[in-house]
Amino acid sequence: IISKLPQTGTTIFTVMSALANEVGAINLSQGFPDFDTPPRLVELVNTAMKNGHNQYAPMPGVMALREQIAQKTERLYGAVYNPETEITITAGGTQAIFTAITAVVNPNDEVIIFEPAFDCYAPAIKLAGGIVKSLELSPPDYRIPWDMVRRLINNKTRMIILNTPHNPTATILQQEDIDELSAIVKNQDILILSDEVYEHLIYDGETHHGMARYPELQKRSFIVASFGKPFHATGWKVGYCMAPAFLMQEFRKVHQFLVFSVNAPIQYAIAEYLKDENTYLSLPDFFQQKRDHFRKGLEQTRFELLPCAGTYFQSVTFNNITDEKDSDFALRLTKEFRVAAIPTSVFYTQGTDHHVLRFCFAKKQETLDKAVDRLIKL
Ligand code: GLN
Hints:
This protein is an alpha/beta fold. It has helices at 12-23, 39-50, 63-77, 92-104, 121-127, 146-152, 175-185, 215-218, 245-258, 264-273, 278-281, 283-298, 326-336, 365-375; strands spanning 26-27, 87-90, 110-115, 131-136, 157-163, 191-195, 221-226, 239-242, 304-305, 313-317, 339-340, 342-343, 356-360.
């Protein structure tokens, strides 16, 4: 066969988690919690199953859940989405991203991404026949060079993919970024795909500058969100996409034949759980404590900490420790020191010289402490 993705191997998340398991390392690589999903939420899933919600959900998702999402979005960001036509429940963020790209990117359309970029963006663009136009961001700030974005734009530019809070760099878009972006897309036929799966994981009282806050951006955006991250249930693979009706209509044409619909009882459970806004408004405090505790621990090591404004990832540079490539170092760290991390160079299509590792701190305090004890030995 002729590979459609000749450059693509197995995703780093699978590679590192498998290695961590194989050698018995503390797995701070792939992002998922090692603590429990909220018991009340699990109970609600049980109840939904007992109540017989075990057959196909409607193709766009359970209405009660779409309604809760619409209410939450309006309350938090002021945007009004019609649950009937503008919200679809997906099998996690990744499916939503793939679906949105497949729905609107035509062969030879150009899509701008910022690297390091989450690893599913570029393959999805390529499978749609699109052209990846990547701009490299650099530590420690990873700011988007908007003048370079401007220079990349031409009449083939179909989409810009944004991610805030950003995986893997833990940065967030600022008001200046929104202003620049708004000026760039104004009067242009450019769509936005905004990956906001960490929207509730923002620290130090900062604001989530999601597309739903800005009518000029919102009207051209697919916004992708997740329930796995906020509700400590990454294995459930339930998320959603919001977009204006003319975009959502195209999205659903793909969604219906990709998955048709997603897990029904979990949708009923989350619809109930979302009624209490504290379930997500308490998250910044919860994770900020972990961030601060982990950062304090890492300060005792020879790693240098990069800023962390959001997500549950902490990146570090390691120039004081070794001049190995990050991917080599990550393997050695896992095998010899038994702590697994993600080497961030895999998130650049052309590779990079930046020596940065990403650790996930969505872990019990004892797990983080144990990892730090091992990292101190470096
Ligand atoms: N979002 C998770 C991370 O960045 C991984 C998702 C996945 O494994 N596909 O670690």
